[in-house]
Amino acid sequence: MSVTTNEPPQEATPSPAAALRSGSLGTADIAFFVVSAAAPLTVMAGVAPLAILLGGIGAPVGYLLAGITLAVFAVGFTTMSRHIKSGGAFYAYITRGLGRRVGIGAALLALIGYNGMEIGVYGLLGSTFKDTLRALAGTDVPWLPIALAGLLLIGYGGYRSIDFGAKVLGVLLLAETGILVLLAGGVLLKGGAHGLSAATFHPDHILVPGTAAVLAFAFAAFTGFESTVIYRREARDPERTVPRATYLAVGFLGLFYAFIVWVAIQAFGDAEVVAAAAKDPGGLFFTAISTYVGGWAADLMHVFIVTSVIASLLAFHNAINRYALALSEEGLLPARWGRIHPRHRSPYVAGVAQTVLGAAVVLAFWAAGADPYSQLLLWVNTPGMIGLLLLQLLAALAVPCYFRRVRHQEGALRTVVAPIVAAVLLATAIVLVITHIDLFTGASTTVNWILIATAPAVFAAGFPLAGWLRRKRPRVYAEFAAEPAEPADRADVAAPA
C-alpha cells in the first residue's frame, strides 16, 4: 500500500534531481544553439545565390539591414529578459505585456512555428544527403530512410544533456563556418575575379527593385535567433549570458552573412555574378570554392552542408522541447511531457513526443508522394517562419506595454523607442515575406494563401482556448505565465487578463 500511495506524488512533483541542469550554458554555448539553428552554410550555399540573382551585387546589404533590425528588436527583448524569469520565452513575454488571451495564442503559435521550422528541415536533410551522395559517390538513395534516421539521431541528441548538445553544435558550427571562411580566404588572397570591389555598397546597387525580395530572404535567414531566452534556466548568470548571446548571435549572423555574400560576388566579379547565379544557383558556391581553393574543398562543403542541416535540426529540437516543458508546467500540455530525465536532466518525454510528431509528418508527405525539398521543406517551413516573425512582432509590441505597468529603472530608449522602431521594421519584414511568398515556396496561389493563413489561424485559435480555460480551468488560466512578485522592484504579480 505504501508504494502505491507514494508513486503519484513522485510523478506529479519531480525530485530536485529531476530538474534542468542549471548553470550548464555560457554565452558561447547559447550562441552555438542560436547560430546553428540558422544553418549559415545551408543559407549561404542554398539561398544566397537567389538573393544575388534577385537583388544583384547589392544583396549583401540586405543581410546587414535585417541584422540591424533584429539588433534593434533585441534591445527591448533582452531588457525584458532581465525582468521575466519564465522559460516560456516569447509567449511569457507577450502574456506579461499584452495579456493572457494574446499570450495563449502566442503559445500555440510558438509550438506551430518552431515545429514547422524543424520538421520541414527533415525534407532538406533527405534531399541534401541524396545530393551529397550523388556528387561524391554517384549513388542515388531514397530520401525517406535518411529523414527517419535523422529523426532518430536528433531525438537521441535531445535526450542527452544540454551540455552534450552544446558540444556537438560547437563542433558542427565550427565545420560549417570554417569552410566558408576557407572560401573567403581563397578569394581574398587571389583578389577575386577582377580585383576586390566595394561597388556592393553603392546606393545605385542597393536601391533596386529586387532589394525587397532580398530583405525577405535575409529576415528568413535569422529565424530562431530569439531562442536564447529559452535556455535561461540552464544558463550561467542568465541576466548577463542571455543578452550577450543574443547580441553575439545577431551580430555574427548579420556581419557573416553580408561578408560571405560579398565574397561570392568577388569570386565571379560584379558584372558576371548575376549571370552565374542564374545559370547554376545551386552550384554557385561549389564552383567558387573549387576555383579558389580546390575540388577537395567543394567535396568538404557537400559534407558540411549535411552536418549544417543536422546542427539546425538539433538546435530547433532542443528549443521545442523546452517550450513544451514550459507549457506542460503551465497546464496547456500533458503534465507527463514535463518529465525531466534524472541523469541527463533533459525534457526527454517532450523530445519523444516531438520526434513522433516529426515522423508522422514526414511519413504523411512521403505517402502522398511529395517532394522532400519543394513540398515537405518549403510547405512546412514557410508557416513556421511566418509564425516566428509574428511572434517577434508581438514580443516587440509587448515590451512598452509591459514597462508601462511595472516599476523599473530602465531607460525610455530600451523600453519604448527601440521596441516601437523594431515593431515597425518587423511589420515591414512580414509584409515583404508575404508579398514575395512565391519566391519561398514556388507553389500555386491557393497553396500560398493556405501557407500564409496558417500562422494567423493558429494564433486566433488561442482566443477561444483562453475563454475555455477561464471557464473550465480557471486556476490554469489565472496562473498562465505568472511569476512570484518581487517587491523590491516589481509591481506585476500576474499577467493582465
UniProtKB/TrEMBL annotation:
Key words of the record: Membrane, Transmembrane, Transmembrane helix
Subcellular location: Membrane
Pfam families tied to this protein: AA_permease
Entries under Gene3D superfamilies matching the protein: Amino acid/polyamine transporter I
Main location: membrane
GO biological process, one term: transmembrane transport
GO CC list: membrane
Residue span(s) of domain Amino acid permease/ SLC12A: 34-450
UniProt topology in membrane: Multi-pass membrane protein
Residues spanning the membrane: 30-55, 61-81, 102-122, 142-159, 171-193, 205-225, 245-265, 285-316, 348-368, 380-403, 415-437, 449-469
Domain of life: Bacteria
PANTHER family in the record: AMINO ACID PERMEASE, AMINO ACID TRANSPORTER-RELATED
Name of this chain's protein: Amino acid transporter
Lineage: Bacteria, Bacillati, Actinomycetota, Actinomycetes, Kitasatosporales
